[in-house]
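Page 42, continued from yesterday. The earlier attempt failed because a stray header line got pasted into the input along with the sequence. Redoing it now with the clean sequence only.
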Amino acid sequence: MSAFIKHAAAALASLMLLLFNLPAAASAGQVVQVDAREQFGYAESLYAGGDYLLAAGEYKRFEYLFPDHDSAETAAFKVGMCYLKAGRYPDAIASFKDCMRRYPEGRHYHASHFKISGAYVASGQTGAAIATLQNLVVVAEDVDVRDEARYRMGWIYIGMAQWEKAQEAFAHISAENSGAYRCRELSARLAEEEKEIPRKSPKLAGSLALLPGGGYLYCGRYQDALAAFFVNGGLIWAAYEAFDNELYALGSVITFVEIGFYAGSIYGSVASAHKYNRRNERRWIERLRQQLKVKLAARYENRGVELSFNYTF
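This time it went through. Structure tokens are written below.
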């Protein structure tokens, strides 16, 4: 049986080889050659069409076939872009780092830093994103690149509600670029409006929760407050009645259950205050982003960065 399988596999391989060579035989021995422009163009068309994973494979093929081509670095960079667009952030980070390693003097070196930072932010690794930008500030000689890195850092800190660090990042942007990034307006808004964001005190919410439902009521969660009041009140009354009727085992069970509900009400009240604060901070940050954030569109074929402005009145 195994010999039959081997013969069948050999026959199939011979048939495939014959079919593969038919076009070459029909064209009188001509050899099909892969053109660099066509290969790169095909990868670009897949990328433009949103077939990012297929495009990544074709960019890699281009790198393999044409390692010394002028577009080899761009192909390496675009592999990272494909993974970034596809939401495969670890692969994107690895690809951009590989591009930086192989082309440390290339035109996509700085852009790779920015994209790595963006991938870290998208995957929730804000600390790594900031570290990447800080490293770029150290190694970059171009003041425009350093300023963009600081500007991006500032907005990451804003997203983390670390207002002082955000102001510090914006303060280190050079005077010639400070106006373009609207640093003065940003710093003023951070210093003045951030304090006016409606907030609830988690400590006060926990203290008020000593009266069942009080913490939820303070946080504006009225239905939860009513439920906590009646559930805890009912359990306390039931435990009292059980002990009053000398049903000590039942009273102990009810008391144990009530302690859990009571502690949960306190914890829930504190958590509600934190959620209330985060929700209002996110709303304020989004409004600030819409009104003042400069949109950065990196032009990777050049060294420069295009700035566009978006004002909301």
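Notes: The beta strands are 295-298, 305-308.
Reminder to self: strip header lines before submitting.
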